[in-house]
Amino acid sequence: MRANQRGGQVDLKDLTRISEHLDTAIEQTHALIQPHELSVRPAGLVRALEDLARFSSARIPCEFRVEGEASTNDPQLAQAFYRVARESVQNILQDKKATRIEIVFLRRESSLVLRINCDRPPNANHPAFDGDGLLKRLAGAAGLDWSMGADSDREMTLQVSVDISNNNTKLPA
Q1: Other residues' Cβ atoms within 10 Å of the Cβ of residue 146
Q2: How far is CA 72 from the centre of its chain?
Q3: What is the span of the domain harbouring residue 69?
Q4: How far apart are the C-alpha atoms of 127 and 132, rounded to whole Å?
């Protein structure tokens, strides 16, 4: 832009880069202004995850499903699960290498599990879910177990879970 102010030509690469930054800022703004029922009640976690999938499907197909009696009344736990899902999906969308996302929230025996799959080819140098490690630290601080891996040479999976058998979470009656 300085070149333009001095009367020079603006390079197309610069304009393209500015456009990409604006697109990213718009996507992040949309994610921030989505209605979050979690701030009202943690039982809204399933609804918030449904909304996240629906919002994301505007870009690429995103499926959400619940398996078993997956729910929590613990507001911190609900918020942690949702933040991991939202940031992971946002990272996948920004990466632009996946064509499909699947979000699954389930109860497996004494654990609540959030699993996110995408059909992005695995790459150790650029993990789609958590490029800078922030989400892993967020999940750890919330007491969530974190695992990330490749199901095949064409799919990546992130899974966060918490053991609910020790009554650290408040389950519905």
Answers
A1: 17
A2: 19
A3: 6-163
A4: 9
